[in-house]
Amino acid sequence: MKTAITELFGIKHPIIQGGMHYVGFAELAAAVSNAGGLGIITGLTQRTPELLAKEIARCSDMTDKPFGVNLTFLPSFTAPPYPEYIAAIKEGGVKAVETAGRSPEQYMPALKAAGIKVIHKCTSVRHSLKAEKIGCDAVSVDGFECGGHPGEDDIPNMILLPRAADELKIPFVASGGMADARSLVAALSMGAAGMNMGTRFVATKEAPIHDNVKQALVEATEILAGGLRPEDELAPEPRSGPGPEAAGAPPAEPRRPSEKVLTPEAEIVDQPIDRLKGQPRTPQEPPPPPPPPPRR
Ligand SMILES: Cc1cc2nc3c(=O)[nH]c(=O)nc-3n(C[C@H](O)[C@H](O)[C@H](O)COP(=O)(O)O)c2cc1C
Question: Which of 21, 22, 182, 204 most suits a substitution to test ligand 1, by most atoms within 8 Å of the C-beta?
Fold first, then answer.
């Protein structure tokens, strides 16, 4: 298939493997590139520019197809030596860089001078337009579904992608929740020129991730990674004091997985969201009624 993205990066299929900290090593990037996509080494997983140079060399030994490097710009007290990382990318002959985190504007001259194509990862249309303005060749539009950092607008791809297609002149790939051929067809139908996947590539033999995690991803339903199925019933939520049953109310129905509270783990994951919204997810239960006075 030919799209603006396959043309831009010289690849066979319009599929990109997004940078993933501690996942995107040479093995995964080379496998994706050998299969006709664009594999990406995660630059900052390599602690120094010298180590990145070695990782790029390892990847070049494993594939003769194009691959890229991800450079994530995040606020930090001691910024990584980005110019040296860019020098390692340039000297390694890499022609594609995926930038993310914040605007790559200050590094664009160096990247462009080295003939590198830049695809910037954005979670909003306004950031995509800024990327276009500063000379990025493409953008990866990351909906709220994405793994990694989903931005702050919480816009899902069904809304974000058509909006990006309305506004952008440069090509973009759809990213976030993409997993198979159906995702690619949907992405193309919404105006994207390809797709970017992260989580799906975690469940591959080339990803250096524990097998149990991969198995959980493969078995996951739409509700929960870890194999919980819609027909699974959960035990009633444990209470600390006597519940309404003590006052003669019927016992609580078993909870269904579709309810928000799934497992102790899920409750822990959910907690920050509750704090963020400044209110508890479920209304506080009133204290149980006092026991009746003993009869004489
Ligand atoms: C484990 C993991 C680590 C990630 N680390 C990074 C990162 O370091 N830099 C970055 O730009 N994106 C990172 N991402 C985001 C991915 O590149 C990609 O945009 C995202 O996973 C797409 O959404 P999906 O997981 O639904 O396919 C990471 C994603 C995952 C799942």
Answer: 21
Mutation choice for ligand 1 from 16, 17, 20, CB with most ligand atoms inside 8 A: 20
In the chain, which residue ranges form alpha helices assigned H by DSSP?
4-9, 26-34, 49-62, 82-91, 108-113, 125-133, 157-167, 181-189, 199-202, 211-219, 264-277
Looking at the domain assignment, is residue 292 inside a domain? no
Q: What is the pLDDT of residues 236-268, one digit of tens each?
A: 555 555 555 566 766 655 544 443 333 444 333
Contact 17, 38 (CB under 8 A): yes
* Ligand 1 nearest-atom number relative to CA 175: 22
pTM over 0.90: no
Neighbours of 292 (CB within 10 A): 7
The pocket around ligand 1, CB under 6 angstroms, is made up of 18-21, 23, 42, 70, 72, 100, 121, 142, 145-148, 175-178, 196-200, 202
Residue 285: inside a domain, yes or no? Answer: no
CATH number for the domain harbouring residue 8: 3.20.20.70
Same domain, 176 and 248: no
